[in-house]
Amino acid sequence: MKNKYIIPTAIVLLLTGCLFMGCSKEITKYRELLNNEEIIYPGPVSHFKAFQGNLRIKLQWHPSPDPSITKYVIYWNNKTDSVTLDASNRNTLDSVSTLISGLGEYVQNFVLYTLDDKGNRSIGQSLSGVRIFGPLYVSSLVNRQLDANRPPKAEDADTYKLFFAAADTILNAGTQLTYTGTDNQVHTADVAAKSDSIFLDMVKAGTKIAVRTSYVPVHRAIDTFRVTYSDTLVLK
Prior knowledge:
mainly beta
């Protein structure tokens, strides 16, 4: 026969009471720390994104449907700088954005909070490691080069075909050529990143062809960065 162990009812009640009293004590302890107030976190936004520019950035998000939200607060520069925006739109299909200018050319972290009318603040939503572009980035760029294996081709007395080396079609936003025409006016022509050649007409003999290439540093950047003009060649 197996042995049976019976725990007296009194002991069970005693253990249950101690457990309840212990839990109650823990709850009371944390209530005291919170001054008997409940912590309220307003609803977060969605699709928080950054779009980089020239020493500036566009931050965009979709509003929270939480009707208690009255403001958005965004911090950056190790939370020493901030901007506060009114929150009036609660349509989660719409976009809310703000443009922050005057940033330094280095990596930034941005943190967004929602606030309600009682000052309660949501849990922060972060965009970390966002690179800010500026003069240092521009100094690293170069104008698109002519194809050394295919020299300019004269089509007639004042028309030339120029050939270019392959371009980075992701970052290259096009190249502009400037030259003096046979009418002594300044002419411009644009070479798309995907194109490797262009025809120039009405080219004045002995004119210099100035080249200026533009770049976008990342997908959906809000600014285009342009290299300084360089004189590439003289067409005879």
